[in-house]
Every structure is written in structure tokens, then in C-alpha cells.
Amino acid sequence: MSLSQDILFEAQPYLIANEKHPFVQGIIKGELSPEQLRYYDKQDIAFEYNEVAVINALINNSTTTDQALLFHKRQDMQLHMLDDWLKREPESMPHDWESLKQTTIQPINQLYRQHMASTIQTHSVLQILPSFAAGEWMYVELGKFVATQTRVKEEPFQSFLSMSGDDFLGPKGYIQQFFDIIDHEAESATPREQEQAKQTFLKSCLLEWYFWDAAYKLITWDDWKKNALGGKGGVTL
Predict the structure, then answer these.
(1) Engineered SS bond to 14: which of 74, 107, 171, 205, CB 3.0-4.6 Å?
(2) Which molecular-function annotations from GO does this UniProt entry contain (predicted)?
(3) Which fold has domain 3-229?
(4) What angle do CA 77, 146, 215 make, to 5 degrees?
(5) Cβ contacts of residue 15 below 8 Å, gap of 6+?
(6) What is the pTM of this model?
């Protein structure tokens, strides 16, 4: 069994958990509030911006020219996607690069961003790529799942989980090419390095669930502070 096959086998429970999450179900049924949608939109665009640095690290640490070209192509898509996204945001949301940098990052988003950024210091495609590829894979698989459901057709729900097409699917799509790279890099890696790569992928899958959960519950740093200082086991000042 290749490393990517092993990863995907162990990732299946995480995929099922994401499919069942109330936020994902809310997308399907059109049952999310404007506040929940706004929270997700704002945190997600900031998260996508953070991925620019991760993709840059993949380009810089590529072990073949083909890898570098693939990651560069994905980076070009990322930047154009972010630019288009910013242009259509309302004034209450980030609408240019400067305001995007000033977005308040809420707890789970920060944990996920730091999880991905921590792999950069390894200078290893095998360790960096799983942190990024997991979210890509999860989003595409959730898109396949919701396509089998009776979902609402109205916006903004219809645009959620719509990352598909030749760019991501099929043997030449990003997802398969990312797994091919992981398997190629695993050939010269130790068992410990392979296990670390797998666990990085699975942690990203877990954090994807918590990202939905934070948006569904509108979790902020104030909530964490109240829980710590005034909740069970906390102290009241």
C-alpha cells in the first residue's frame, strides 16, 4: 500500500464526520444564518490568504522542476481566486489586500493556520504538502457528497463546495498530482517521516471539521476568554 492509499484509508472517518457536520448540512438545506455565513466567509478568505505562504514554501522546496511548475500553477490560481473574491466582497468584509491582512483571526482559524505554517520549517515537500492537500481533498470530496444530495439552489448556498472540474479532478487534476508527489517523496523517506506526513494530513482533516464548527457556533476569542475566566473550572475576576 502506498503512503497516499494509507492516508486516504485513515482519512475516511474524518470525511464522514465533515459530511455530517451541521454547517455542511446547513449548506445542503440552506439553513444557515447570515451571521454564520459571514463568519465563515471572513475567516475562510483569511485562511486562503495564509495558504499563499504555504504554496510558496512548496515551490521553494520542490525536488523536481515538474513539482515547482505544478505548485506555481496552483499559486497563480490561488492569487486570482483571492483577487476575484476580494472584488465582490461587501464593504463590511475585506475588499483589498491591505484590509485582508488586518482581518481578525479567530481561535480555530489561527490553530489551523499555525498547524500548516509549522510544516514550512521542515523544508520538506513530504511534510508541507499534506497540510495543504488535505483541505483541498476534503473540500472536493464534500463537493462530491453534496452533489448527491437534494440541495437548495439559491445563493449563497449554491456556491459552497463547488471546487470541481478538470483543475482538481481526474488523473491530471491537482488532487491526484498532489498524492503522486507525496508517494514520490515517500520513496526516499524514513517510516517515521512517512508517519509524520500522514498525521499532518489527518490533523488538517480534523481541523477542517473544527473550522465548520467554529462558523456554526460563531466561536470567537471572547468566547474562549469567557469560558476560561468564568466557566466551569475557570475563575471569575
Answers:
(1) 205
(2) thiaminase activity
(3) Heme Oxygenase; Chain A (1.20.910)
(4) 70
(5) 138, 141, 142, 205
(6) 0.91
